[in-house]
Amino acid sequence: MFPAAADAVPRPRSPESPQPAPPGRQRDAFFDNAKYLAIVLVAVAHSWEPLKGDSRILEGVYTVVYSFHMPAFILISGFFSRSFDMRPDRLKRLVTGVAVPYIVFETAYSLFKRYADHDPGMEISLLDPWFLTWFLVALFIWRLTTPIWKLVRWPLPLALGIAMLASVTPDIGDDLDLQRVLQFLPYFVLGLVMKPEHFRMVRRRSVRIAAVPVFAAALAVGWWAVPRMNTEWFYHRNAVQEMGAPWWTGPVMVLAMFGSSLLLTACFFAWVPGRRMWFTALGAGTLYGYLLHGFLIKGAGFAGWFDHAWLHRPAGELFVSALAAIAVTLLCTAPVRRVLRFVMEPDMNWAFKKDAPDVARARERKAAPREKAGV
User: What's the whole-model pTM score?
Assistant: First the structure.
C-alpha cells in the first residue's frame, strides 16, 4: 500500500515538470521514486550499448531492462496526462514544456554529432529525431490525442490495433519517428485509463515477493535469447519487413512484448518504495536527466573512451554502470534544473494571445481600485 500521505493522489501533472506542487498538495513520493529509478535504468542501459557485444550476460540484462524501462516511464507519463484537454493554458504548457525543448535539443544533438563526431553530413532536421529526442515528439503527439482516447469506448484495444498495424507498415518512414510513436502508444493509453488503486495493487507484499522469481526467469530468458533474437524488437523503431522477418510476426511480437513488458513493469513498480527517499526530489527533474545524459554517453563514444579493453570486463562494466547512474542523478538535481529552466520551461507569455478569461480578469483587476475610489 501507499503511505497515508500518498493515498490521495494529487491532481495529475506532467511528469516532466520540475515545479513544486501547488500549496496544499503534496507530490506522491511513489511516482517521483519510480520516475527517478526508471531514468537511471535508461541512462545505465545507454551506457551498456558500446559494451554489450562482448558479454552475453550483459546483453541479456540489457534486453530485460530495455523491455520495461521505457514502458514504465511512458505509462507514468500517460497516467499524469489524464487531465489534459484542449484548454489554452494546458496547450501553452505543452508547447513550452515539450515542443520547445524538442526544437532546442534536437538542434543541439545534431550540432553535437556534427562537430564532436566529425560528421559534417549530419543535418539538422526536426522531422528526423536523433538518438533520444524521439520521446518528446511522441509525448507531444500522445498528449494531443488524449481527448480522443478519453472519448472512445475501448481505448487500449484500439491503441494495440494501431501498434500492430504500424509494425507491418514500412511506408510510415522515419519522419518524426512515427514507428516508435505508434508502437509505444499502448503504454501511454494504458496509463491514461489506469487509476491510483491499480498502482496500489501491484505494490502488495505478495507481488513484491513474486517479482523475484519473475525477474530471475526474465534474466534467464534474456540470456537464452541473445543469439536467437534481434534486439531491434525492443526499440520499436522499425516495421517487421525492415528486420527481414515474416509480416505476421509483427502483430504477434507487438502483443507478446506488450504482455511481457507489462509483467516486468508491474514487478518494477512493486519494488519502488512508496515513502520519501533521498532521491525522491530528483523525480521532479527526470526529463532534464533524460535529455542531458545523452551528451555524456555519445560524447564518451565519440572520444573513444569505451574502446579501453578493461571497460569490457565485468569490473569495467560495473564501473561504467555506476558512473552513468551517478551522472544522470546529478543531472536531475535542483541546481541543474535552475540553470536550464529557461530552456526546459521557458516563459513564453509574449508568444501567446491572452484568452478571454484572462482578459476579463485583467479588466476586473484594473476596475477594482476605481470602484473603491467611488469613480
Answer: 0.86
